[in-house]
Amino acid sequence: MTAEESTRPGAVRRGDARAFAWLVGVAVVIALIAMLAVHHSWSAGALGRFYSQGTSGGDGVAEDMLMDPLIVAGEAVVPDVLRELPNPAMPRRRYAIGFLGNGGYGQALPALRALLVNEGESELIRGDALRAIGQIDASEAQALARKHAARDDFLGTTAKQVLAGETRERRTYLQALLGRHE
């Protein structure tokens, strides 16, 4: 670059471009480390935040956002959820079931199948379990839905929806992290 070119507005020297690229790279690495740290800290108390989110009136948490603490924690919280899931008194149990399906966690299938076949469970829990199974394994859900489609309750309605190929829109990590309601 000549002296004349370097004094023109907008002129960038090679050294400046390299320094800028280096700074951008460092910023990206720092951002990734910060995201991992936030994710780890969120995982640690995710179940407690899940239980308490939206309990204060006027905090603006829409129903589809109730599972956000679990979605943000991701797979790290799945063992905790699976441990609590058999307990009928688990707070927000239906949303925990929804979280497992939303995340497509295959390791949840045995617990979800157990809920579905347990006639002592409410038809709401059983229907949610079937829907979650469908989000994880559509062909298995289709086979299971055939057994329940004749019912005239929530489980039957859900079974018919599964057989018709109706699926629930997944809530993304970014939506949960930012608290976006859609």
Task: Please name the CATH architecture of the largest domain.
Answer: Alpha Horseshoe
The overall pLDDT average reads 85
What number of structural domains do the residues give? 2
CATH level 3 topology of the largest domain: Serine Threonine Protein Phosphatase 5, Tetratricopeptide repeat
Helix content: 55-70%
> H/E order of the elements?
HHHHHHHHHHH
What fraction strand? under 5%
Note the overall shape: elongated
Uncertain segments are none
Structural class: mainly alpha
The CATH C-level class name of the largest domain:
Mainly Alpha
Distance between the termini: 52 Å
What integer value in Å does the Rg equal?
23 Å
Distinct helical segment count: 11
Total beta strand runs: 0
Largest β-sheet summary? none
Q: How is this structure best summarized?
A:
This protein has helices spanning 3-6, 14-44, 46-52, 68-73, 78-84, 93-103, 109-117, 123-136, 138-146, 154-163, 173-178. The protein is an all-alpha fold and 182 residues long. It folds into 2 domains: 3-44; 46-178, Serine Threonine Protein Phosphatase 5, Tetratricopeptide repeat, CATH 1.25.40.
